[in-house]
């Protein structure tokens, strides 16, 4: 049996900058393809079925997000413990953590999906559907609830594979998932004409293929992701839940963001406002996944170095990540200011009201990316070292607390423009709070 002691871990020996790039590039490529896949779904639904169908799928989207949140809650928490155990040279503990995490994720998401399916009709209306959008939202939601456990298992396995020093395979699985989903959705929507329910099935099938790709990792000689004899260890599970809670909250925050914006825009601008937000949300999903890719790159590194007490490498990693996030945020901001009109036109030939709402929304909303990257990196850093309170504060404040306060007040003054500015202001306030905290408690002491 091969153990960690029988090979040299490059995380211990190679330059930090080289290691960061090794993890960052596959994460960004994989996330970019997933983002393009996400946008392709919107483009095909919008062009084939129209703005009402696009709004319906957008309304059902938070359910997908909640399932991803469940997988990240246990997945990121478990993977953080896994990397810390590997950094401390304890592979047996790491393998048990992997086994327990995967079993809990599968069981929890299966049970939650079935319970939610029983109450699916009131759930759809609670998410912001009206008589126009209900048929589309309901059709998409039914599939997601019954088979959502497939992509939760895929997502969690991908996190562990990345933490077991194989970011390239994790990227490859994302590529297969994304490309397959685009091909299947084209066939389903344009050839077979199966509507949004068919598109949801395409997403599930693609995720299943991604699991097959990730399975190749288990044939590696230095693989440490081994399923071992399982007996629930509550202390480790509680620790994983605590560490993963900020990631869960981040995904729940995306659902809160989507539902609150849908409901507010439905009140202010009707279905046109919801359709405009659906376009912005698809574009935002691309940028969000890019920042998530940065977090995915540093989490295994920070967790490993923290477990091995390598303070020097932790410091170098966080500095490189913050510089990268700042550059990316500026680029994303400029894309929104210069390309808002062409971006909206990609999603379909909408009427002038929807087009103007979406174009203005993109230009105002994209101010958030000047601050969002640093907030993502800092949340991941604190989560990876076990400072759950600060990681939770960053997530809760930016995606729930500040956003909801601003969203419930500013639109009364600025109208729809106040909706678009809620996130940029929230991100700025959170970054200010992080700067204040770091001045009192330096990152690496």
From TrEMBL:
Keywords: Antibiotic resistance, Cell membrane, Membrane, Transmembrane, Transmembrane helix, Transport
Transmembrane segments: 20-40, 52-76, 96-119, 139-161, 173-192, 198-219, 240-259, 279-299, 320-340, 360-381, 393-413, 419-438
InterPro entries assigned to the protein according to its UniProt record, in alphabetical order: MATE_fam, MATE_MepA-like, MATE_MepA_subfamily, MdtK-like
Species of origin: Alkalicoccobacillus gibsonii
NCBIfam families, per the entry: matE
Protein name, as recorded: Multidrug export protein MepA
UniProt xrefs under PANTHER family: SPORULATION PROTEIN YKVU (PTHR43823)
Family recorded in the similarity comment: Belongs to the multi antimicrobial extrusion (MATE) (TC 2.A.66.1) family. MepA subfamily.
Predominant place of localization: membrane
Subcellular localization, as worded in the UniProt entry: Cell membrane
Endpoints of the signal sequence: none
Record membrane topology: Multi-pass membrane protein
């Amino acid at each position: 049996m091969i153990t960690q002691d029988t090979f040299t871990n490059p995380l211990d020996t190679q330059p930090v900058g080289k290691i960061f790039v090794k993890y960052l590039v596959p994460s960004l490529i994989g996330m970019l393809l997933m983002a393009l896949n996400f946008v392709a779904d919107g483009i095909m639904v919008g062009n084939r079925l129209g703005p009402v169908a696009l709004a319906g799928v957008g309304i059902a989207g938070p359910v997908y997000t909640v399932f991803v949140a469940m997988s990240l809650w246990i997945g990121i928490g478990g993977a953080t413990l896994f990397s810390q155990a590997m950094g401390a040279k304890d592979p047996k503990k790491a393998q048990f953590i992997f086994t327990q995490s995967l079993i809990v994720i599968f069981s929890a998401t299966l049970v939650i999906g079935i319970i939610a399916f029983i109450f699916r009709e009131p759930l759809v209306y609670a998410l912001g559907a009206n008589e126009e959008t209900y048929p589309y939202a309901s059709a998409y939601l039914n599939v997601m609830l019954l088979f959502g456990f497939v992509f939760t298992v895929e997502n969690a396995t991908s996190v562990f594979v990345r933490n077991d020093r194989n970011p390239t395979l994790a990227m490859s699985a994302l590529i297969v998932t994304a490309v397959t989903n685009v091909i299947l959705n084209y066939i389903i929507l344009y050839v077979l004409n199966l509507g949004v329910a068919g598109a949801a099935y395409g997403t599930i099938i693609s995720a299943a293929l991604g699991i097959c790709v990730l399975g190749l990792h288990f044939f590696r000689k230095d693989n440490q992701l081994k399923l071992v004899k399982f007996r629930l260890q509550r202390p480790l599970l509680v620790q994983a839940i605590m560490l993963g809670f900020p990631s869960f909250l981040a995904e729940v925050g995306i659902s809160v963001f989507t539902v609150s914006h849908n409901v507010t825009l439905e009140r202010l601008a009707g279905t046109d406002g919801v359709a405009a937000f659906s376009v912005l949300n698809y574009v935002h999903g691309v940028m969000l996944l890019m920042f998530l890719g940065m977090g995915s790159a540093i989490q295994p590194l920070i967790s490993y170095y923290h477990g091995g007490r390598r303070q020097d490498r932790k410091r170098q990693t966080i500095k490189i990540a913050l510089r990268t996030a700042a550059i990316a945020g500026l680029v994303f901001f400029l894309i929104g200011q210069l390309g808002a009109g062409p971006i909206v036109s990609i999603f379909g030939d909408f009427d002038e009201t929807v087009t103007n709402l979406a174009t203005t929304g993109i230009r105002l909303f994209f101010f958030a990316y000047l601050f969002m990257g640093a907030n993502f990196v800092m949340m991941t850093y604190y989560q990876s070292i076990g400072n759950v309170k600060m990681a939770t504060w960053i997530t809760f404040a930016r995606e729930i607390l500040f956003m909801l306060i601003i969203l419930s007040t500013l639109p009364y003054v600025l109208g729809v423009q106040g909706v678009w500015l809620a996130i940029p202001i929230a991100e700025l306030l959170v970054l200010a709070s992080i700067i204040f905290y770091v001045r009192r408690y330096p990152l690496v002491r």
